[in-house]
From TrEMBL:
Alphabetical list of Pfam families matching this protein: Aminotran_1_2
Protein name per the record: Aminotransferase class I/classII large domain-containing protein
SUPFAM superfamilies: PLP-dependent transferases (SSF53383)
UniProt GO MF annotations: L-tyrosine-2-oxoglutarate transaminase activity; pyridoxal phosphate binding
Length: 71
């Protein structure tokens, strides 16, 4: 489980919006924490080869950089 610091992201208000936008923009699927009654957390699971995992993590990083507050 990963706690989201939404104050660092622009235009993302909760874990569901984070997961939805990530899926649409980067084709990476994470489970929003509200499903487990953990608001603004995400569940990360993987069972893939290391190169595919590295690609997925790079996509999550690119997404976060793209949506980072420009302060």
């Amino acid at each position: 489980m990963v706690k989201l610091d939404l104050s660092q992201l622009q235009g993302i208000n909760d874990d569901m919006e984070f997961c939805s936008k990530l899926a649409n923009e980067e084709s990476v699927i994470l489970l929003p924490g509200f499903v487990l009654r953990m608001k603004n957390w995400v569940r990360v699971t993987f069972g893939i080869e290391p190169s595919a995992l590295e690609d997925g993590l790079a996509r999550i990083k690119a997404f976060c950089i793209r949506h980072a507050n420009k302060c």
